[in-house]
Design a protein that fits this description.
The chain is globular, with a radius of gyration of 28 Å. The protein has 584 residues and is of the alpha+beta class. It has 3 domains: 185 residues, Growth Hormone, Chain: A (Up-down Bundle); 199 residues, MFS general substrate transporter like domains (Growth Hormone, Chain: A); 130 residues, Alpha-Beta Plaits (2-Layer Sandwich), CATH 3.30.70.100. It has a 4-stranded antiparallel sheet with strand order 3-4-2-5. A two-stranded antiparallel sheet has the order 1-6.
């Protein structure tokens, strides 16, 4: 299919600035932009203050590390919390934490009692607040704008972040030069107030949860499992990591470009950052038209080649206007690539795992940038600045060939709207169900001629079941009846089983229905559910309940993914313990 021939209907209905017509998005975007400016101004103040507290280079470098480290440590946990708890409350708590820490930082600096390790502790805690806020905000965008506006909204978020990253340090330098580091800390404290006010005024609908919230460690594992079993997301993460590692050369080496290649000073560095910011703005404003015309893979190729060209120009230019043209290309490629990666992740996952998926993406891109900055710094030290930049540009250009190995999602997307069952299976309350694992078996009758295609369909279904929470999935054939197939999988508990039933999407339902078309029995596929019962739990039951054990039932009104009432008796396939439920 011609990559330019297929248009994306979602982005065709949106314009670059159309998300701003939704007042809550506009308010959150502006408040976040101001907060990002404050954070970067504080980073400048903290770095400068550290030069007077501890002039050694290694300790000064720890200021930046203490700001970024929380993203690496807590981003996934923050993403899990964004999926499990109320995102608005989580964002509000993160901003209040950052505000309190920033105020303390300001007070301690004004009082002249700051020490190097106290400063690092404060900057680390501020970074924790930002790391908690990021995934919750990113995964909330789809709640404040329609799905058709999501690509433009994500691009605007990337634009805001990169505007702050481009201009914020320059403003911070001016504030520190004129009023000192304490003034930078005060500005950052004030920057949180607007965002807190907007979050307090946001009337986010309260989600009605049918089940207890997942524990954070279990939710983190569930997010990693979903991403690991989703080829499309894995491809996006791999491409994002490579792009982050190679494109970080400009961020790491731009001060040296200004000083050594152009023979300029701080003002030259500011002009290069300004050109990068102009490229970011132009890219964000044109991204909607590009997405209307090209598919995702072609957009990533365009963005990568633009950044590669900018790196090569910066490597060989000694003239400021020419180098600014190069950094302008880099800024355009940077925002276009990162916003496209972000959009691809958000459009490839259902709502229940969105926060975790965004957090894993952010961890991947930050990790790639951190590693890349170190590697390109080493390359510049050993091979020279120009050679390092040229090598980075060449590596970026070659990375476009990875499209053959890790193709980007097409952009048309699956229907990931939730497909909730009309009713849920019910469990006889006489069964102690807090600890018992649940084993599900489904029997299909498939003609031998259809067996290969049925196996392929079940392999796809297995991936869906496992990424939604199923464990130890297997498909078996009866050795005495080759047309009788049994699908088997299990869950840690009854609540986990019910929770995965609520995670199904319209696309998941279609995969199940396709697999079911191979069934040729007179009745629907037969479903059995068994629950492991420790002997001590059975012994603790009242006598009347033990007498009812043969009649205890788990019922289900024949709805996918388990489409028929279960019939049968305990089998040796049950997990360790004594299976106590027999279905009617």
């Amino acid at each position: 299919m011609n990559d330019t021939a297929q248009r994306r209907p979602d982005s065709a209905r949106a314009s670059a600035l159309s998300p701003f017509k939704y007042h809550i998005f506009l308010a959150l975007w502006l408040a976040s932009l101001f907060s990002n400016f404050g954070g970067l101004i504080q980073s400048v103040g903290a770095s400068w203050l550290m030069t007077s507290l501890s002039p050694t280079a290694d300790v000064v470098a720890l200021v930046q590390a203490s700001t970024v480290l929380p993203y690496m440590l807590f981003c996934l946990a923050a993403g899990a919390a964004a999926d499990v708890f109320d995102r608005r409350a989580l964002m509000l708590g993160a901003q209040i934490l950052a505000l309190i820490v920033s105020v303390l930082l300001t007070v301690f600096t004004f009082a002249d009692v700051m020490t190097p390790w106290l400063l690092l502790s404060f900057t680390f805690l501020v970074g924790c607040g930002n790391a908690i806020y990021g995934p919750a905000w990113q995964s909330s965008v789809g709640e404040v704008v329609p799905r058709s506006e999501l690509p433009s909204a994500v691009a605007l978020n990337s634009l805001g972040f990169n505007l702050a990253r481009t201009v914020g340090p320059a403003i911070g330098g001016l504030i520190v030069a004129a009023f000192g580091s304490q003034a930078a800390f005060l500005v950052n404290s004030i920057s949180y107030v607007g965002l807190i006010v907007v979050l307090l005024s946001w009337k986010r609908p309260v989600e009605q949860r049918q089940f207890p919230p997942e524990r954070i460690p279990a939710a983190m594992v569930a997010g990693i499992r979903y991403v690991a079993l989703s080829p499309a997301i894995r491809n996006v993460l791999a491409r994002a990591a490579v792009f982050g590692m190679t494109a970080s050369s400009i961020w790491a080496l731009m001060p040296l470009v200004a000083r050594d290649l152009i023979k300029g000073g701080p003002s030259t560095y500011g002009l290069l950052l300004g050109a990068f910011g102009v490229g970011a703005v132009l890219s964000a404003l044109s991204s909607t038209r590009l997405r209307d015309r090209f598919m995702t893979g072609r957009i990533i190729t365009i963005a990568t080649l633009c950044f590669a060209a900018g790196s090569v120009i910066a490597a060989f230019s000694t003239l400021l206007p020419v180098t600014m043209m190069g950094t302008l290309l880099c800024g355009g490629g940077w925002v276009l690539a990162l916003s496209t990666f972000n959009i691809s992740v958000q459009l490839s996952v259902p709502r229940w795992v969105l926060g975790r998926s965004v957090a894993i993406y952010q961890t991947t891109i930050f990790g790639g940038m951190a590693l890349g900055s170190w590697l390109w710094g080493l390359a510049a030290h050993h091979f020279g600045l120009a050679s390092s930049l040229a090598l980075a540009g060449g590596a970026l250009a070659l990375s476009t060939l990875l499209a053959r190995v890790w193709p980007m999602p097409a952009g048309t997307g699956e229907n990931l709207d939730p497909r909730l069952p009309d009713t849920m299976p019910t469990l006889d309350q006489a069964i102690p169900h807090q600890r018992g694992e649940v084993v599900v078996t489904i029997e299909y009758r498939v003609p031998s001629a259809d067996a290969p295609r049925f196996a392929d369909a079940m392999h796809t279904l297995a991936q869906v079941r496992q990424r939604n929470g199923a464990r130890r999935w297997s498909l078996m054939v009866d050795v005495t009846d080759p047309e009788l197939w049994t699908e088997r999988f299990q869950y840690p508990s009854w609540v986990d089983y019910l929770r995965q039933r609520n995670r199904g999407t319209v696309a998941d339902r279609g995969i199940w229905e396709h697999a079911r078309t191979f069934h040729r029995g007179e009745t629907p596929p037969k479903v059995r559910r068994f629950m492991a019962q420790p002997v001590e739990d059975i012994a603790a039951l009242p006598t009347s309940a033990r007498e009812r054990m043969p009649a205890i039932a788990i019922t289900d009104p024949a709805l996918p993914p388990d489409p028929s009432p279960a019939t049968g008796s305990p089998t040796s396939d049950s997990p360790a313990g004594t299976p106590s439920d027999r279905t009617r």
